[in-house]
C-alpha cells in the first residue's frame, strides 16, 4: 500500500530551550563556530516571554531559546526538564499539504498554519514527552522565522565544516509508541535496528542493554533513531538514566555531518569541547574487525584515529567515522544543563549506524556514569 508522503525535504532546524542564553551564545558562536544570523527583539520578547538566538553552519541550523517570563512556553518547559530540545522542525514543500495529510491521519495538531513574509509553519504533538514537531515552508534556504530580527555579520566561519544534521536520536522507556507514530502519522519506514546487552559478551558483568530502531522518511532520507532500556538491570540502563535526568523521554543527541572529521575533531578539542573516551582495546582490535567486515579502503591512519578517539564502522568497503561529545551536564558540571549531547559524523558510503560503534558509545556512557574512566583489560563488549 502506498502511503502519501508529507513532502518533507530535510530537517530545517531544532529549537533548544536553555536557562543560560549567554552560555549557549558562547558555545555555538565561539566553540562550534556557527554564525548568529537572527535574534529576538524587544517586541518579540515582550509578546512571547522568550529570548531567542538563531545559529547556522551550512544546513546545521538551531534556535536557542530562554524564558524571560516564568509562565512562557520555554519557562514551563524548564520547570519540567533541564535544557533540551523542545521542537524538531522539518522543511516541507507545501505546509497546507502536510497539514491536511496529518489531520487525515489523526495527528494531534497543536495549531493551524500561520504565514508571514512567505514563511509558513504549524506544530504537531508527539509521544516523545514535551517534544513537538514543526513543519515549515519558506521561500529560500536562508529564510529564518520572520518574527526574529536578522543579524548582519554575526561571525561564525564554520571552520568545523559542518554540512547538515545527519540524524536525531531520542530515548524513551517504550520505543514502539514513538516508532509506530513515525510510521502511522509521519509515514516513515523501518531502516535499521539493533538489540544488545553488555552482559552478552561478559556474563559476569552486570551491565545494561538497549533496543534501538531507526525510522526514515523514504523521500528525503531524514532519519530518527529511538532507544529504549532492556532488562536485566532495566533501571540501571543509561537509557533509563537519561529519561530520569531529562524529566521524561526526549532527544538524546543530534548528529552533525562534516566532510573532514580528522581536521574537525582536533579543532573542536582546541576550542574546549570534550568527547567521550574510547578504550585502547577498541583500536587494537579495529584492523581485525575491519577485515571481518571487508572494509579494505580505510584511508585514515589508525594511530591518528586512536589519538582523536574517532570510531570506525562499516561493511564491504563502505564505512563511517564518528565521535560523541560529552553530555552538557558533564561539560558544565551542572544537572540543569541536561543529558543532551552532539555527535560528529563523516560517511564514506556507509549509511547505517555502526553496530560496533553503537555498542562502544553505550559502553563509554555506562563507564562515565559509574565514574569509571579507564580500563586495564581489553573490553570485548565493544566489539559486536
Report on this structure:
By secondary structure, the protein is α+β, with helices and mostly antiparallel strands. The protein has 2 domains: 8-141, 2,3-Dihydroxybiphenyl 1,2-Dioxygenase, domain 1 (Roll), CATH 3.10.180; 162-382, 2,3-Dihydroxybiphenyl 1,2-Dioxygenase, domain 1 (Roll). It contains 12 helices and 17 strands. The protein has helices spanning 21-31, 42-48, 73-80, 95-104, 175-184, 238-246, 261-270, 280-284, 286-292, 302-308, 328-331, 355-369, and strands at 8-17, 35-39, 50-57, 60-67, 84-92, 114-116, 119-124, 132-137, 149-150, 162-171, 189-197, 209-216, 223-230, 250-258, 311-315, 318-324, 341-348. Strands 6-7-8-5-1-4-3-2-9 form a 9-stranded mixed β-sheet. An 8-stranded mixed β-sheet has the order 11-12-13-10-14-17-16-15, sandwiched between helices. Strand 3 (50-57) and strand 4 (60-67) form a beta hairpin. It is globular, with a radius of gyration of 21 Å. The model is unreliable at 372-384 (pLDDT under 50).
What is the element string, with H for helices and E for strands? EHEHEEHEHEEEEEHEEEHEHHHHEEHEH
Strand order of the largest sheet: 6-7-8-5-1-4-3-2-9
CATH class of the largest domain: Alpha Beta
Could you name the ranges where pLDDT drops below 50 across 5 or more consecutive residues?
Answer: 372-384
Which radius of gyration do the C-alpha atoms yield? Answer: 21 Å
Strand content: 25-35%
The number of helical runs is 12
CATH architecture of the largest domain: Roll
Query: Approximately how much helix is present in the residues?
Result: 25-40%
- The overall average pLDDT, rounded, is 91
Distance between the termini: 35 Å
SSE-based structural type: alpha+beta
Q: What is the overall silhouette?
A: globular
Count of β-strands: 17
Instruction: Tell me the major beta sheet.
Output: 9 strands, mixed
Question: Looking at CATH, which topology of the largest domain would you report?
Answer: 2,3-Dihydroxybiphenyl 1,2-Dioxygenase, domain 1
Q: What count of structural domains? A: 2
| CATH homology-level superfamily of the largest domain | 2,3-Dihydroxybiphenyl 1,2-Dioxygenase, domain 1
